[in-house]
Amino acid sequence: MKIRTRLLDKFRSFAYRHAYADEFTDAYIATQIRALREQREMNQTDLANLARMRQSQISELEDVNNRSYKVSTLKRIAKALDLMLVVRFEEFGKVLPDMGKLDPEHLGRTSFKDDPVFSQRTDAMTDESAALSTKATLGRVLDGSARFSRDVSNVA
User: Of 19, 61, 110, 115, which is most buried, counting CB atoms within 10 Å of its CB?
Assistant: First the structure.
């Protein structure tokens, strides 16, 4: 029986899938922090300095047995690496393909300055059109946040 098939069968157990998810999340975060640091050819002290933390804190974050991640701390790491932290609730089936992919190739991410979406800006795009595009995008985001807030308050 294939590993994936066995895993799918075991995931039918509530306790098993949540224990697995906890272990996977902890290992994923720790391993990704290390992979991102190494991708940038930094040591723990370098990352700690950028994140305004102690080297020992980076060491703890990179420990797959660490069980205490604060979102605020992860945001500091993301900022130091010039990345965005994304935290969301997800269906098990959507995450299943990522399980087992804890290698640097899958965990690496490009900093903003090398992000292909932002580095492909053409000369035809003026600062003014970029500002208008940004303003329109920000307006949609803020409008969505306002709708979300109204929807939530109507539920309460």
Answer: 61
Helix locations, 53-126, DSSP H: 55-61, 71-80, 92-95, 104-107, 116-119
- pTM for this model (two decimals): 0.70
Distance of CA 112 to the CA centre of its chain: 14
Q: Which residues of 95-123 are buried (b: 16+ CB within 10 A; e: fewer)?
A: eeeeeeebeeeebeeeeeeeeeeeeeeee
Integer Cα distance of 108 and 87 in angstroms: 17
Largest CA distance in the chain: 59
